[in-house]
Write a structure and sequence with these properties.
heterodimer; A: alpha/beta; 7-stranded mixed β-sheet; 11 helices; globular; B: alpha+beta; Alpha-Beta Plaits; two-stranded antiparallel ribbon; 2 helices
Chain lengths: 394, 58
């Protein structure tokens, strides 16, 4: 490894690896750093990923991570009413993140990026208002690495952007507290995602069952970071205790994590700095998925980094091209989804039960993608106490 | 008094690090959660967030 690179990417999740790969493919000298000893582990993810998302990203499905096909979803209201949708074609997978993330990092390496696991960035080199590099700790050694651009892809626990003076703190109202068991359990419909809603079940969130095969599933929960005195683990354990066959499930893995469900950061760049993925709050605020968003942003960031370095200008103004391109493609839609989240979290269980009577499964999936919101607003308007929530959608 | 980590419970997920408004938490090597006692203001954001109840009042 050298002491200077064009780009240093902090964090080898999907955002960081896609950034590193795109930057290397565009001719840059890239270093991708991961503080954990193993890229992709431990997972902090329900592992749903859509076929459309993979197509948009140009990621070729690989049997090492496309471990279970998904054809639809069952959405369960607080009163137990199921709203289902099964499509005529496969819509997604439950993936193996440990392989998915690792293969992305391998692709970045094959594109020419240097990749280094168990290497922790502990500080930034700042000079004249520009980020100029990183301080790294590796196996008890501490050293500096210079960079023309540093990419903060350091996840929900991001500090890099904050060290550079950009306030990317995750507010409690805009983060979900999540907990999950991967378990061996007999499943009725291994090709469907199950989502359970209710303020007693999972305040401001939901319980999910994402099958990874005929008899394996991620059974998890996300709840609002500010809404309860009980923990996500307590809520999930209570739900599992009441639901066969999950109460008999054999636990093979336990996961926890934070999910940024606020609006994306207002500014994704600084002088010599780009912010990507969970660190930039680039997450679908309704379903909490971030793999697609981070990957999509990373591909733009890597390309723009190459353009900026070629022109010899890594100022905030030059790097804004990433911000603008990303916002044009994803910013507006993620904002719409964020507004939907703020509206939905005002609903009581009675309201959710009412929606389950009025909506189809296709509607719910469309909402999660920020579509058909006018239809939702119209249905909410029929109940006087929901007019305020409906207006927030429009 | 700064917050205390119960290492029997902590999952090293790092969510609290992002939540802390004072940059008082570090997930060292991605494994061990450290509270910087100088920076911690005992605001309790990390405790409210924690999915497993691992961060406690001292």
């Amino acid at each position: 490894m050298k002491d200077a690179y064009d780009v240093v990417v902090v964090g080898a999740g999907p955002g960081g690896s896609n950034t590193a790969k795109a930057a290397a493919e565009n001719g840059l000298d890239v270093l991708l750093l991961e503080k954990r000893p193993e890229i992709g582990a431990p997972k902090r993810c329900g592992e749903g990923f859509s076929v459309n998302g993979a197509k948009t990203l140009g990621i070729k499905p690989d049997p090492r991570w496309t471990i279970n096909e998904i054809w639809g979803a069952n959405i369960v209201a607080p009163n137990g009413k199921r709203v289902s949708v099964r499509y005529d074609n496969q819509v997604g997978w439950v993936i193996e993140r440990k392989m998915f993330d690792k293969l992305l990092a391998i692709e970045a390496a094959r594109a020419g990026a240097e990749v280094l696991a168990k290497s922790e960035v502990v500080g930034l080199i700042m000079q004249d208002g520009f980020v100029k590099g990183v301080e790294v700790e590796r196996h008890g050694e501490r050293f500096s690495v210079e960079a023309k651009i540093v990419v903060a892809a350091d996840g929900v626990e991001s500090k890099v952007a904050r060290w550079a003076g950009i306030n990317s703190t995750q507010k409690l109202v805009d983060i979900d507290s999540a907990y999950q068991y991967e378990m061996v359990v007999d499943l009725e419909e291994p090709d469907m995602l199950d989502l359970y809603f209710g303020n007693d079940i999972a305040p401001r969130g939901y319980v999910w069952v994402f099958p990874k095969g005929k008899d394996i599933a991620n059974v998890g929960i996300g709840i609002g970071g500010n809404v309860s005195t009980k923990t996500a683990k307590q809520y999930l354990d209570e739900w599992i205790a009441k639901h066969e066959p999950f109460n008999e499930g054999r636990i093979i893995e336990v996961n926890a994590g934070g999910v940024p469900v606020g609006a994306p950061l207002e500014k994704l760049v600084g002088n010599g700095l780009m912010i990507v993925g969970d660190a930039a709050h680039q997450v679908n605020a309704i379903h909490g998925g971030g793999v697609f968003e981070a990957s999509f942003a990373g591909q733009i960031a890597g390309r723009v980094a190459a353009e900026a370095i070629e022109k010899g200008d890594v100022s905030e103004a030059a790097l804004m091209k990433y911000d603008k391109e990303w916002r044009a493609a994803r910013g507006e839609i993620l904002h719409r989804i964020y507004k939907l989240r703020r509206a939905i979290e005002q609903l009581s269980d009675a309201d959710l039960n009412y929606l389950a009577e009025e909506l189809t499964g296709e509607d719910v999936v469309a909402f999660a993608n920020g579509e058909r919101l006018a239809k939702l607003a119209k249905i909410l308007m029929k109940r006087p106490h929901l007019i305020k929530a409906a207006k927030e959608l429009m | 008094m700064p917050r205390k980590v119960d290492y029997d419970l902590c999952m090293s997920c790092g969510g609290c690090v992002g939540v802390c408004p004072f940059l008082a938490l570090t997930l060292e090597h991605g494994i061990k959660l450290i509270v910087d006692e100088e920076k911690c203001t005992d605001c309790g954001s990390c405790t409210k967030f924690c999915p497993v109840g691992a961060i406690k009042e001292a």
